[in-house]
Amino acid sequence: MAARLLVVFLVTATAASEHSSHVVVSVGTEAYGAAPYSYYPQSVYYPQHSYAHQPVYPHHPQPAYAHHEPAVPACAANTTKPWCLEDSEYPLYEIQHALQYNAHHVLDLYADVADLNTALSVERPKTLDEETYLCPSATAYVRPLRAINTEGKWRVIVNNVEVHYQTLTQTARVEECLTAGDACPLVPECYGSTCLQKSIYHRFLVYDPYDYYLPFSIETFALPSSCACLLSAYTLDH
Ligand SMILES: *[C@@H]1O[C@H](CO)[C@@H](O)[C@H](O)[C@H]1NC(C)=O
């Protein structure tokens, strides 16, 4: 608990000293311990067969660059989060190779999601006085290389890939509770409060090595978006 209070203090102190417009703590992928992630669905919502659709165009020979991807990528071992920001096995060459044949279609898909990058779209209070944050959180702008989609599958996300002298990037703002599940620090104990991780859905252009006809598509991912303080029903009776 002492460590957490220290974190709260540091967050406040950092924000105050920078005269910044909002509280932003840049965190690396492993900056703090594994909070349990409750914000992505544990269950698979769709039948398996909707995913396994490889032989749609059996007359196209499978190109040599498609290789078997494990269900859980190696980079997952290096992070506690359902996404990877670093990946020594990122199939950059395969993506670039596949892009040569699909550039125009992929650029169309990319244009559809590029505007949705959340890097610049979040309004935050101008000063700390405008809003009291009840639960400590860390905010970062991330460019995931892989992530778990809303069907619970790891996907390769097209990021930092060059095509036609353009670099395709996909950025998402993530805000994570530092003490999810704990009581809100500033709320008296008798109120029965809990810090609750909330998430929103993002659409990303992904690379699917198994779809050899068009190995690019847009899929949906739930990422942490804010940290709320939830008061128990008992409190609301008062
Ligand atoms: C995981 O981290 C180790 C140590 O930093 C690194 O050597 C390895 O390449 C990483 N694995 C992946 C898949 O990125």
From TrEMBL:
GO terms for biological process: central nervous system formation; innate immune response. The keyword Glycoprotein applies. GO terms for cellular component: extracellular space. Pfam families: Spaetzle. It comes from Portunus trituberculatus (Swimming crab). Gene3D superfamilies: Cystine-knot cytokines. Keywords: Disulfide bond, Glycoprotein, Signal. This is Protein spaetzle. Residues 1-16 form the signal peptide. GO terms for molecular function: growth factor activity; Toll binding. Residues 133-230 form the Spaetzle domain. InterPro entries: Cystine-knot_cytokine, Spaetzle, Spz/Toll_ligand-like.
